[in-house]
Backbone:
């Protein structure tokens, strides 16, 4: 079962949420616990008073014999849903610490979130708040071990997650091409990255993720070899002197201190808000002596009969409702403006154009002044 649980709350106001994500055959607790029983996320909570520490757990069996697992696209969709259900408690910048398959999960979730950001507030917030991804032994281009298991598929019954980790898997290549060219990663550099890869064979027998697959080719990110670490213990540092721990602490500090970069959805919304604010201020500046048709003409001029007329009209609805609900607005005026504004909303401009034409001449100076101020 997929779930996100809090390891430690921030001791002071949280500036960031650090989220640990395990890999194939992993668990939120066991993956990051060393041979002395010390849990790596606990160290991060001790090092930072202003950071909340979380762990994401999901079904990640290597073989169907031991439980199910989802294909990567489905697993990313489920992960986004779980994060959406916890959006009220994830309030800070989000920094992901990913082991193996966990890194692919985060990339897939961010891709889904980006695709849905324009229509979903939570997805948009997740994209905005993600400021760092720390990859440890992540097979961005698959693993030769998954290929080996493929040759033995008659006996092994590989899980869906394992099948998706074959070397040079087409979906993994497509996902990585998208991720490294994503504007948040490439052009804006809004998300920081760190890559650490194993240098020893696991159990002295087999290498899981080679350096080539661990290197996602991200701009400005140099992969770091984890000397003496295999695929499992790379995220189980025995003490704080192990280089990967110091690297993670520094990485978190840099992510917290980095400026937040607005995404394109945020910029578009702020642009719309500014236009609405300017229009509202200009409408407010008109004297109450000006008749309603003149006000409607002002709005009509703002719309300007462009292709985006309907969308702009829709954007204005809340503004007008707010304006006519103000306590200091005359009741008759409020009723009249709502009635006549409905003509515009219904694109039945002809019904109010006669009144508008009569008022146009004496209001020309006011219109020109208002438009110059926008």
Residues:
């Amino acid at each position: 079962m997929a779930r996100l649980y809090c390891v430690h709350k921030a001791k002071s106001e949280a500036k960031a949420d650090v989220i640990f994500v395990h890999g194939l055959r992993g668990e939120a607790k066991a993956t990051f616990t060393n041979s002395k029983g010390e849990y790596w996320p606990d160290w991060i909570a001790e090092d930072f008073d202003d950071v909340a520490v979380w762990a994401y757990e999901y079904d990640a069996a290597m073989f169907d014999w031991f439980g199910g697992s989802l294909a990567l696209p489905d697993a990313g969709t489920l992960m986004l849903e779980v994060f959406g259900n916890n959006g009220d408690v994830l309030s800070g910048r989000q920094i992901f610490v990913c082991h193996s398959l966990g890194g692919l999960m985060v990339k897939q979730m961010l891709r889904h979130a980006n695709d849905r950001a324009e229509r979903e507030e939570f997805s948009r917030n997740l994209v905005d708040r993600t400021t760092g991804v720390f990859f440890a032994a992540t097979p961005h281009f698959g693993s030769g071990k998954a290929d080996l298991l493929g040759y033995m598929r008659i006996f092994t019954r590989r899980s869906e997650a394992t099948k998706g980790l074959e070397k040079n898997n087409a979906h993994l290549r497509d996902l990585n091409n998208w991720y490294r060219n994503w504007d948040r990663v490439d052009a804006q550099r809004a998300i920081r990255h760190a890559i650490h890869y194993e240098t020893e064979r696991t159990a002295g027998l087999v290498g899981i993720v080679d350096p080539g697959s661990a290197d996602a080719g991200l701009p400005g990110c140099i992969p770091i070899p984890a000397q003496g670490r295999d695929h499992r213990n790379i995220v189980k540092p025995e003490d704080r002197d192990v280089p990967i721990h110091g690297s993670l602490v520094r990485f978190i500090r840099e992510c917290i201190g980095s400026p937040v970069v607005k995404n394109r959805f945020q910029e578009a919304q702020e642009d719309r808000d500014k236009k609405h604010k300017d229009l509202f201020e200009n409408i407010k500046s008109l004297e109450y002596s000006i008749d309603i048709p003149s006000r409607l003409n002002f709005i009509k001029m703002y719309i300007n009969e462009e292709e985006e007329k309907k969308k702009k009209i829709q954007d204005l609805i809340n503004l007008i409702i707010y304006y006519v609900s103000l306590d200091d607005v005359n009741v008759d005026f409020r009723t009249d403006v709502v009635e006549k504004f409905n003509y515009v909303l219904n694109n039945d401009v002809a019904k109010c154009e006669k009144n508008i034409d009569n008022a146009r001449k004496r209001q020309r100076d006011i219109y020109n002044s208002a438009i110059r101020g926008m």
Remarks:
- Confidence is low (pLDDT under 50) at residues 146-156, 286-290, 324-331, 347-360.
- The beta strands are 3-8, 16-21, 51-57, 93-99, 130-136, 192-198, 224-226.
- The chain is about 50% helix and 10% strand.
